[in-house]
């Protein structure tokens, strides 16, 4: 699939959120979309999924079946979990009995069995997100688009996300996933697209690229935010250590980096 010279803005006279974006993703590939809040990651994913239509440019070779998991599952619909998912399975082309079986399997797998009879508006945010994930996976998608899929999920389901991604890749699907919290570490083989100033650049780092280690001190209360920001900007966070612990010298080469240098952030 290719986004070919895609431009997008939300209002006719508004500024362009995406400007001349040209990216491709192939079968069996996963790309993580990184960037600061508000930079256009969701917008890019929605164009890829076909939810938004570009103002200029086009999307070509989008797989026929797209699984789309929005950042916030729209739970303001008057259905129970089972009714909603069965309806979505039918829309996706499954016969009634196959739809029922698939919904049972996915609700079991995602820990939703106890919620089958619960109406969507009554679900917690995390449980609603699981319904969103189930909905996207009811039939194996040729393109799975996940907008901040780790947001609001419990630990067990967060661990399941890479598994689901691997399953889509194994059936020849492509996966796009945004991540501003640094969960990307869970997808070590992923390509990395960074959105900034309306454009998307792909990191072309190879394993033998020279690396440098930068030690950064931050107030203890702000560690989580600083780590998330560094990761969102594409840096590897090697380790977080308390200030009292003495620093070892920075690694001179990538091999030493792999050995675990006590730096908070590593700049590329
Ligand atoms: N429906 C909309 N109408 C108007 N402007 C919008 C709409 N959705 C997003 N925008 C604007 O487009 C820009 C990009 O938003 P987008 O949600 O794509 O960013 P993001 O990188 O996904 O942010 P975050 O990390 O906070 O999820 C922002 O300036 C946002 O305010």
UniProtKB/TrEMBL annotation:
Source species, domain of life: Bacteria
Gene Ontology MF terms: ATP binding
Q: Which PROSITE patterns match?
A: ABC_TRANSPORTER_2
Annotated stretches, region: Disordered = 243-268
Q: Which Pfam families match?
A: ABC_tran
Q: Which SMART domains does the record associate with it?
A: AAA
Biased composition range(s): Low complexity: 254-268
Q: Which InterPro entries match?
A: AAA+_ATPase, ABC_transporter-like_ATP-bd, ABC_Transporter_VariousFunc, P-loop_NTPase
Keyword annotations for this protein, in alphabetical order, are: ATP-binding, Nucleotide-binding, Transport
Q: Does the keyword Transcription regulation apply?
A: no
Keyword Nucleotide-binding applies? yes
Where in the numbering of this chain does the ABC transporter domain appear? 1-223
Q: What is this protein called?
A: ATP-binding cassette domain-containing protein
């Amino acid at each position: 699939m290719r986004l070919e010279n895609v431009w997008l803005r939300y209002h006719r006279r508004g500024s362009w959120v995406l400007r001349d974006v040209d990216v491709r993703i192939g079968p069996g590939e996963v790309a993580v979309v990184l960037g600061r809040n508000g930079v256009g990651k969701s917008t890019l994913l929605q164009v890829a999924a076909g939810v938004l239509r570009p103002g200029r440019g086009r999307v070509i070779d989008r797989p026929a079946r797209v699984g789309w998991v929005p950042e916030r599952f729209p739970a303001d619909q008057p259905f129970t979990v089972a009714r909603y998912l069965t309806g979505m399975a039918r829309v996706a082309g499954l016969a009634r009995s196959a739809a029922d079986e698939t919904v049972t399997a996915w609700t079991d797998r995602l820990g939703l069995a106890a919620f089958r009879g619960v109406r969507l508006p009554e679900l917690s945010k995390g449980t609603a997100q699981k319904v969103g994930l189930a909905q996207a996976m009811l039939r194996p998608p040729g393109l799975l688009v996940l907008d901040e899929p780790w947001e609001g999920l419990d630990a067990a389901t967060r661990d399941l996300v890479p598994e689901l991604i691997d399953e889509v890749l194994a059936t020849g699907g492509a996966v796009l996933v945004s991540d501003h919290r640094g969960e990307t570490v869970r997808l070590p083989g992923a390509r990395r697209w960074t959105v900034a100033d309306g454009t998307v650049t792909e990191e072309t780092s190879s394993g033998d690229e020279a690396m440098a280690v930068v030690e950064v001190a931050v107030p203890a209360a702000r560690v989580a935010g600083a780590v998330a920001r560094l990761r969102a900007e594409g840096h590897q966070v090697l380790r977080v250590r308390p200030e009292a612990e003495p620093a070892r010298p920075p690694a001179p080469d990538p091999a030493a980096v792999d050995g675990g240098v006590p730096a908070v952030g590593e700049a590329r």
